[in-house]
# Entry
Amino acid sequence: MAFYKSLKALYKSLKAPYLLIIVSVFSTTQAMSAEINLSRSQLTELARHIQRNNGSDSEQSLSQKKYDFIRIALVEIIAAYEQEIDKSLQHKQKSLKKRVKTRRWQLATQTYLATLNDNLHRMDSGASLDFLISQQNQIMLLIDARPVIVSGPNAGSDTVIEKKIVTQFCLVNDCKAYFKASDQSDILKSDNAIQSARHVLEDVSGTWNMRSSLRAEYVTSNGLSFKFSNVRDRVAKQAWVYRILAELLLLQGQLRMIQEKGNLIHWQSMKLLKLPETDNASKIIINQQGDFVKVTIPELAKSPLLFMELVPWIQQQLVQKSAFSININQAEQFFHQSLH
# Structure
């Protein structure tokens, strides 16, 4: 009851447009509560550990963890609603009644998304941040005292959102103290692809920069910036980035040996030719004489255009060995090519 009393008091401080939107969403969440498993989830466990703190974190560290938790949660909620709108646009209703109903839902959802995006902008502008956990284990984010319930467009999406929030938070924060060993292994299953690709890149790190426009950018410490058009599937995208980096490292080793032997590399003439699948390798033409190096780089082989964009970066790494950065603006397109 205390949670609902505080919520009621909070509503009184809100302007009417926000009040209508939040009350509507909260009413929907209450209506679905019979369908949702309200037992304490990993997300709730994580939220309680962050709130409890136990004095292990400094005030600055705790503030950063709250910021990470709230921002990741907000981005995942937005992504879930965006995905549901995309589905509704692809599925054409036959009857006029259903089309009208779907359109009304789309308009209401777009209004709610505008509110969520406004909250994301507020976070970027230094809004006050906190979150509450109800007795029913529902989590409410508070951004400048404006509530956002951690919930998706339908009951099935809630579990997906929760798992994604926990996974993303634990990629940038140490969660070992928060969960039992068995729970940790479940959380890290989706991270296995990243770890398997990263083991050859121990000196390379990376960070996600998420924009309020829902665009996402993964920046590596060795000068590569992969710009994605949306925030979905970040774990898979991060794993793909590290596979690309691992292949670049392998290729650099081959090219370095060629240079040490005195062979010329004409960077402007460099090309990637994929060999027959039975060979499982690619041929990199290194000069105008047609000399080549044979190397297994399956991810780069799927997209010669991505390879060509990376050639100047490879050259700088081997020849100049100086700080050099490059933007991969079509990372979303290249990532989807890798899935086929």
